[in-house]
Amino acid sequence: EIHEPEEVSVWFREGSSCCQETLARNQRFTETPVNMPGADKETDLSERIESFLSELKRCGSGAGSLRGSAETARETTALLRRITAQARWGNAGELMEIIRKEGRRMTAAQPSETTVGNMIRRVLKIIREEYARSRGSSEETDQQESLHKLLTSGGSSEDNFRQHFTHLKANVIEAINELLTELEGTTDNISMQALEHIHSNEVIMTIGRSRTVEAFLKDAARKRKFHVIVAECAPFCQGHEMATSLCKEDIETTVIPDAAIFAVMSRVNKVIIGTQTVLANGGLRAVNGTHTLALAAKHHSTPLIVCAPMFKLSPQFPNEEDTFHKFVSPHEVLPFTEGEILSKVNAHCPVFDYVPPELITLFISNIGGNAPSYIYRLMSELYHPEDHEL
Amino acid sequence: MAGKAGKQSRPRKAEKDEEEQPLQAVLVADSFNRRFFPISKDQPRALLPLANVSMIDYTLEFLTSTGVQETFVFCCWMSSKIKEHLQKSKWCRPTSPNVVHVITSDLYRSLGDVLRDVDAKALVRSDFLLVYGDVVSNIDVSQALQEHKQRRKMEKNVSVMTMIFKESPPGHKTRCEDDDIIVAMDGKSKRILHYQRAQALKKLHFPMNIFHSGSDEFEIRFDLLDCHISICSPQVAELFTDNFDYQTKNDFVRGLLVNEEILGNQIHMHVTRDGYGARVSNLLMYDTVSSDMIRRWIYPITPEANFADQEGQSCTHSRHNVYREPGVSLGHGSQMEENVLIGRNTVIGANCTISNTVIGANCVIGDNVTLDRAYIWNRVHIANDVKVKQSVICDNVEVKHGVVLNEQCVLAYNVVVGPDITLQEGTVLSMHHPDEEDDEDEDEFLSDDDVGYSKDKTKQKGSCSSYFIMLFQNEVHGTLQRGLDENISCDNLVLEINSLKYAYNISLKEVMQILIRVVLEFPFQQQGAQISTAQYSSHLLPLLKKWAPVFKNYVKRPQDQMDCLASMEEVFLERETHWAALVKVLMSVYQLEILEEEGIMRWFKQSSTTGKSQQLRRNQGLLKFIQWLEEAEESSEGDE
């Protein structure tokens, strides 16, 4: 009774351009139409999940990932929408169970890519909200209720998700579509705030290549003249790409080696960086070299601004060592062609740095500027406390 | 069963065929050699664990990540085990992007046989990847594939194969000694002009015509590691069918280059910089590739990625490349120094020192154990105070108290060692008798890549040459027999023996030893082993006389005489009852001037090593003969 192919296909047609794009991309793998009988639909779904998982496992041979985390976030959400539409479930509890199960596999596939887990938590929160709305209770009371339950009974609130609502599926899909639209606009929303932070003739330092920072600087360059210093970010030197890209927009750009960060810092008015993840304590997990940069900025009392869309906010804390780090092939540090020396030394090539919250002045997200101390509050708005552990 | 899966997927793919063929791969899950013997006796090489994952899974992961959609796995040795493994793995799940077909036959004896079968069954439709089941790689071949296709489009069907190499200069530990090659190539078109294995060669010859082939840019490279990954066009399979003597890829490449002008086929190469690719072709490579894996050179294929998607194999990665699967327990004071991988539910005792080591699942390791570069597979029990250095310990082995394994030891399946034993460097212990498989050897040697695996090189080489000597002995016997029957002249016999000598690569000294043995045993061969001494000598003496010129050809220097006598002694030591005949033989060879008295005297006075040969010298007849010789010498001196 759950499968409503007509309705599903309508939702796909109404989806944003991104959704059609993903659809088109996915169509490459299987040429099965959206409308098809139940059994085939399920194998199609699991095929898609598998291909997404293997893509996650393989992505990111260098620093960061080959595609931006914004794209990963969108793909994850689109896949979750597909699961919602195509999987077999009768009530919100079952759907959440399915999403949790697949979510655990997705996060395990690439633990360093926290966006995937974040999007899963967002969708779980959406299901909770939609369920609560269908039941008639307002969002406000629901949250209070859950806080209360957390203290008293703990974890048993899922029993309440067993009720069946006919429109729940449509509502959840609609809410996920809204989330997708929000994801689409994040970079634009952040770069819109550029003029408030960058003034004429300022010297701005950044490190490596962040798509968000790139858009942010380019947006400011339409009105203001300023100078950007890019730390090259060895060993992958994404800074070079960043500088080339900025130059094309007629921004005065200088590339410096990472070792010169401290020496140059005294001339810098502002440091603007991107990040891979914003941790629950307001710290960062950012590309290698960011900690050095942040310390130098602190020493010179230069403000450090982090451009981070909301989907990078993760309920993870920095002490969870297992998944925190990502070590890639030491090829960039010590080339494979070096020969004999390789058997005598151990070379490591970590990708991320931890930057403690006290070194950060301001976060700029798609919903405005926030201090690191405010992150915990945003966290509780975005995710349900019971979903922190998938 | 795999075939069924293939049929299901075919109609879906049929639509695609018109625009673009799905990429196919041929995976040869058999090494056709015995480098891993005796381990490979119990388990095919493709299933041996490398960093706790079967090698074939790495190969399939490589193929899948490079975009292969259909893989044919060819197995011969223990094919049922490989099939079973694949059916359980994620590759045979319906969701797998890479459809795996398993094709088994006991008749495959070499790579050539497999490719001939590929051609006979018409399995490949367009360009395909050819790999072995023990290749570990993360190379993205799409660029090479594109270049290959481009070349094939530009000049229709001229380029048949693109071989993939990795830069690694001499002295690099991932360089496999077996695969040292010299390649001469055209710098612009990347066409291979000359290809030669360089192991142990001091001089290299390049044919002049490669420098006249029209290009003005050449590269001669010795810094390449063959990844054993090649992009082949369907013609490769056809060429193997046309040339039924091609056994290995080496034969194929060399054959093609030699006949390039006639057939017009070319081979190209692609050198990768970033990717990692190596074949686990012997235990030394096993050591290196495992350590490269642990040191994350093959990222994103790392132990914690759990790409094979096996239940309970997810491990964590922490500082100094220490990987732990769930359920590992470590005793008080034990240290995992660096580059360590420990499988699930393994228990390690107190005060152990572990470095550069891989330990499988469900092992129990006692107290005060030191492991360095040890590769310990599953369910191994190691007692207290054991030291292991650079060794392989297979499944279910029990190592008792106080055992020390020096470098390059191998303990094959189910072995129990100890207590308190020190194993010498390079010891191989197995439940199988080393000669058990000698009969099967004959076939396998054909395709063996002819370099001993250096860990047990001596052993390999030894058995190999003794095998050739045996063959040579049979041939010499046949030749002499024919010589007798057809009355062939001695000069021609010498000629035949010499050509046999080259065919079997036998040294001159060995030729003489074998000749002596064959001739002395000739009467036994003809008349049966039971003949009396008198019958024996009456048969032998005319033969000696007849073949005297043959002997004279080989016995020239004083040293030759000593060798000759030594081998005579050896033959007679085996046949105690015929010692009386020795004198007659010596007498006749002396008279035939094959041996001189000085030589015989020197041999006689030689301090013999064994009691038996001393006994031989005390033989009555022999003593008389020696006495006679001495007198003859004196009298000849007196004459002067």
From TrEMBL, chain A:
The protein's UniProt keywords, in alphabetical order, are: Cytoplasm, Initiation factor, Protein biosynthesis
Family stated for the protein in its record: Belongs to the eIF-2B alpha/beta/delta subunits family.
Query: What is the organism of origin for this protein?
Result: Cyprinus carpio
SUPFAM superfamilies under this entry? NagB/RpiA/CoA transferase-like (SSF100950)
Q: A Pfam family this protein belongs to? A: IF-2B
Q: What name goes with this protein?
A: Translation initiation factor eIF2B subunit beta
Q: Which GO terms describe its biological process?
A: animal organ development; central nervous system development
Where found in the cell? Cytoplasm, Cytosol
Which superkingdom does the taxonomy of this entry point to? Eukaryota
* Lineage, top ranks: Eukaryota, Metazoa, Chordata, Craniata, Vertebrata
| Entry-linked Gene3D superfamilies | Translation initiation factor eif-2b, domain 2
The record's subunit annotation is: Component of the translation initiation factor 2B (eIF2B) complex which is a heterodecamer of two sets of five different subunits: alpha, beta, gamma, delta and epsilon. Subunits alpha, beta and delta comprise a regulatory subcomplex and subunits epsilon and gamma comprise a catalytic subcomplex. Within the complex, the hexameric regulatory complex resides at the center, with the two heterodimeric catalytic subcomplexes bound on opposite sides.
Its gene name is LOC109080935
Query: GO CC terms for this protein?
Result: cytosol; eukaryotic translation initiation factor 2B complex
GO terms of molecular function: guanyl-nucleotide exchange factor activity; translation initiation factor activity
Stated role: Acts as a component of the translation initiation factor 2B (eIF2B) complex, which catalyzes the exchange of GDP for GTP on eukaryotic initiation factor 2 (eIF2) gamma subunit. Its guanine nucleotide exchange factor activity is repressed when bound to eIF2 complex phosphorylated on the alpha subunit, thereby limiting the amount of methionyl-initiator methionine tRNA available to the ribosome and consequently global translation is repressed.
InterPro entries hit by this protein: eIF2B_beta_subunit (IPR051855), IF-2B-related (IPR000649), IF_2B-like_C (IPR042529), NagB/RpiA_transferase-like (IPR037171)
Q: Does the keyword Protein biosynthesis apply?
A: yes
Signal peptide location in the record? none
Automatic annotation (TrEMBL), chain B:
Pfam hit, one: NTP_transferase
Q: Where is the stretch described as Disordered? A: 1-21, 433-454
Looking up InterPro entries in the UniProt record yields: ARM-type_fold (IPR016024), eIF-2B_epsilon_N (IPR035543), eIF2B_epsilon (IPR051956), LbH_EIF2B3/5 (IPR056764), NTP_transferase_dom (IPR005835), Nucleotide-diphossugar_trans (IPR029044), Trimer_LpxA-like_sf (IPR011004), W2_domain (IPR003307)
Q: Which portions of the chain have biased composition (kind: Acidic residues)?
A: 436-451
Q: Name the PROSITE patterns for this protein.
A: W2
Keyword NADP assigned to the entry: answer is: no
The answer to keyword Cytoplasm applying to this record is yes
Question: Where in this chain does the record put each W2 domain?
Answer: 466-639
Q: Where would you find this protein in the cell?
A: Cytoplasm, Cytosol
What are the recorded GO MF terms, alphabetically? Answer: guanyl-nucleotide exchange factor activity; translation initiation factor activity; translation initiation factor binding
> Keywords, A to Z?
Cytoplasm, Initiation factor, Protein biosynthesis
Q: What is its main location?
A: cytoplasm
One GO cellular-component annotation of the UniProt record comes to: eukaryotic translation initiation factor 2B complex
Quaternary context: Component of the translation initiation factor 2B (eIF2B) complex which is a heterodecamer of two sets of five different subunits: alpha, beta, gamma, delta and epsilon. Subunits alpha, beta and delta comprise a regulatory subcomplex and subunits epsilon and gamma comprise a catalytic subcomplex. Within the complex, the hexameric regulatory complex resides at the center, with the two heterodimeric catalytic subcomplexes bound on opposite sides.
Please give the family membership noted in the entry. Belongs to the eIF-2B gamma/epsilon subunits family.
Protein name per Swiss-Prot or TrEMBL: Translation initiation factor eIF2B subunit epsilon
What organism is this sequence from? Cyprinus carpio (Common carp)
